[in-house]
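Chapter review: from sequence to fold.
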Amino acid sequence: MPKMKTHKGLKKRIRITATGKVKFKPANSGHLMSGKSGNRCRSMRRTRVLTGTVQAAIRTAVGGEA
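The token string follows.
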């Protein structure tokens, strides 16, 4: 059976940590920030961590082991 291809678009948007967690930057934080509240802007600065079954599916798509 052939190898699975890496989802290149997804690989550019996430990062897999050494322990296998999936880190990502939330959407809607690129521009037009003046219409959003300060609390919302600050919370969007940090990276988020995915959990659950979505995390396993993403790790498989990027080439890691689920």
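Two observations follow directly from the output. The chain has three helices and three strands. The first helix runs from residue 8 to 11.
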